[in-house]
Write a structure and sequence with these properties.
By secondary structure, the chain is mainly β. Helix content is about 10%, strand content about 50%. Strand 14 and strand 15 form a beta hairpin.
């Protein structure tokens, strides 16, 4: 893997120099991204691991890298491609089921335009997820840490995507055939096709409405349990300084093969962002995640995972490419699912800070 990353960096460097010396506009763009963070969990886990349902900024009481990313993007009239390689505690945690160097791939896809008059593309490969308003890249999110619904729905996916963007850029539509629920490599003994959709409407620069879905099976075919999942969110910039995001996830999964009874989980979230100056952003988040039957989050307790979360976040732009972020956050659960001093408790308080560099 070290040789692969070194080769990629050297190749990107040479291509970047070539692009800069070319008098014409280059179709190749190179970007870098780095998040260095420190998180202190007041439950003080001795193994330094945050709870299993947290994948970003998941190490306690140590300075570490959440995500280091180098990305090359190629765009021409009829073809496009993206290749991103990453390292950090985020890929270690969230891609631990993927084999070998697949753990270090943020995205790798190729697209072809299939219409002369319309903006219609077919893309294939590994993509960031089509679900949700938060991604692995923190600078694109209003809060430093990710919402519970984002942490426990796909961050990434692999497959084929057919997409259309309207001439006025108000509508985006896509249909996907996927390898499964957050999988690059298929699970053993699973050959069930999974599908999804995304529909985004932006009537103006102040409003975004999005609907995304997933339908598939995350189990071996012999015990197939179909999963049906939908994500909706709306983002509203009411004033120049005030923005609101409302999100809601809901999913059901068959309790057993060919059964009509389902286990259900759902999660609402509300985020309010206030920007008193051009350099300072403040965001407040309230959320709830209910997974009583432990489809997504396993607790082994009577009431499963039923947890409220609250957080207060502040971002300060030190320069155009560097941001300092700090966030305090609390989880409060119906069952005692957290550990402190070798005993189970219902609460978890933690504070996270990070420096984010984007090039």
């Amino acid at each position: 893997m070290k040789k692969l990353i070194a080769f990629f960096i050297s190749s990107v460097f040479m291509l970047s120099i070539r692009a800069q010396t070319d008098s014409t506009k280059s179709p190749l763009k190179i970007n870098g991204y780095l998040e260095v963070y420190y998180c202190y969990d007041f439950n003080d886990p001795s193994n330094h691991n945050r709870p299993d349902f947290i994948y970003s900024y998941n190490r306690h009481n140590e300075v570490n890298v959440n995500l280091g990313l180098i990305k090359a993007a190629y765009q021409k009239k009829k073809t496009r491609a993206n290749l991103g390689l990453m390292a950090g505690t985020y890929p270690n945690a969230n891609l631990r089921a993927e084999p070998g160097v697949l753990k270090n791939i943020y995205e790798a896809n190729i697209g072809v335009s299939i219409s002369k008059k319309k903006n219609i593309w077919i893309d294939a490969g590994i993509f960031p997820s089509h679900i949700g308003f938060e991604s692995a890249i923190g600078k694109d999110c209003w809060n430093l840490t990710r919402s519970l619904l984002a942490e426990n729905s796909p961050y990434y996916e692999s497959g084929v995507k057919l997409s259309y963007t309207s001439v006025n850029n108000k509508w985006f539509m896509s249909a996907l055939i996927l390898n499964g629920w957050q999988h690059i490599q298929r699970s053993n003994a699973n050959n069930t096709p999974a599908v999804g959709h995304q529909l985004t409407y932006r009537p103006n620069s102040k409003i975004t409405l999005n609907s995304s879905s997933f339908v598939g099976n995350d189990k071996p075919d012999s015990i197939i349990q179909m999963r049906y999942f939908h994500n909706f969110y709306g983002q509203f910039q009411f004033y120049k300084k005030l923005g609101v995001t409302i999100g809601f996830d809901i999913g059901i999964e068959e309790k057993a093969k060919n059964k009509t009874n389902y286990n259900k989980w759902y999660s609402p979230v509300l985020i309010v962002k206030y920007s008193p100056t051009t350099k300072l952003n403040i965001a407040i988040r309230g959320e709830y995640y209910s997974d009583r039957n432990q489809v997504i989050i396993t607790t082994g307790t009577l009431h499963g995972f039923q947890t409220y979360g609250y957080s207060l976040n502040m971002d300060y732009s030190i320069s155009e490419d560097l941001v300092w972020r700090i966030e305090g956050r609390n989880f409060s659960s119906a069952d005692a699912i957290f550990i402190k001093n070798n005993r189970s408790i219902n609460e978890d308080y933690f504070i996270t800070t990070a420096l984010v560099l984007s090039l």
